[in-house]
Write a structure and sequence with these properties.
The complex is a heterodimer. By secondary structure, chain A is mainly β. Chain A contains no helices and eleven strands. In chain A, strand 7 (62-67) and strand 8 (72-77) form a beta hairpin. Chain A is globular, with a radius of gyration of 13 Å. In chain B, the strands form two sheets. In chain B, strands 2, 4, 5, 6, 9, 10 and 11 form a seven-stranded mixed sheet that branches. In chain B, strands 1-3-8-7 form a four-stranded antiparallel sheet, with no helix packed on it. Chain B is mostly beta strands. In chain B, a hairpin with a 2-residue loop joins strand 7 (64-70) and strand 8. Chain B has no helices and eleven strands. Chain B is globular and about 40 Å long. The chains are: A mainly beta, B mainly beta. The interface between A and B is medium-sized, with 21 and 21 residues.
């Protein structure tokens, strides 16, 4: 089955800095890659996703890039704000279900 | 606005008890999922369902069963709870199909403690 590795497990940045979270996947048939954000005590929510026929996608301060050849994808957050502090999960979908990474705890200090 | 609700936010049970966790979605979604979330392990899929009365094992189905008698309701059953099943349980649903249908909407979670 699919295996998703996510790094780093924790990331601390200063407000205004950029943050990058990286994921690798094992199944070359995977074609859908969402990112979920989970704030403390709340449910995970989709923030951005990308399909295998696209190399990059942006939504305001958030962008995701995908390298199919290397089987890795990344989340980029620019101009970080304290409200970006949360756990971020990447995921990959192959034949049927999503496989999630173990999560990255992002802490943005004012 | 999609709503996924779970029957309990917190639950305390004894070892050996039978435990029912209920999940209801109000958006006529085809797919429903049960995950457990543990620190450092992320979200792991226990079971999922693509249709009424249909179920498929996920990555960690041992010790669990599920029931989907109605489209909007997906139940997770711990036949005989054990301490290693102490965890946060998250239910999710998705419309189905490609594109927007793949977005999963999560419930608030049930934190289960097995003593």
């Amino acid at each position: 089955g699919e295996n998703v590795e996510q790094h780093p497990s924790t990331l601390s940045v200063q407000e205004g800095d950029s943050a990058v979270i990286k994921c690798t996947y094992s199944d070359s048939a995977s074609n859908y890659f969402p990112w979920y954000k989970q704030e403390l005590g709340k449910r995970p929510q989709l923030i951005i996703d990308i399909r295998s026929n696209v190399g990059e996608k942006k939504d305001q301060r958030i962008a995701v890039t995908l390298n199919k050849t290397a089987k890795h994808f990344s989340l980029h957050i620019t101009e970080t704000q304290p409200e970006d502090s949360a756990v971020y999960f990447c995921a990959a979908k192959g034949y049927s279900t999503l496989t999630f990474g173990k999560g990255t705890m992002l802490l943005v200090s004012p | 606005d999609v709503k996924v609700t779970q029957s309990s936010r917190y639950l305390v049970k004894r070892t050996g008890e039978k435990v029912f966790l209920e999940c209801v979605q109000d958006m006529d979604h085809e797919n429903m999922f049960w995950y457990r979330q543990d620190p450092g392990l992320g979200l792991r899929l226990i079971y999922f369902s693509y249709d009424v009365k249909m179920k498929e094992k996920g990555d960690i189905p041992e010790g669990y069963s599920v029931s989907r008698e109605k489209k909007e309701r997906f139940s997770l059953i711990l036949e005989s709870a054990s301490t290693n099943q102490t965890s946060m349980y998250l239910c999710a649903s998705s419309l189905g199909g490609q594109g927007l249908g793949e977005t999963q909407y999560f419930g608030p979670g049930t934190r289960l403690l097995v003593l």
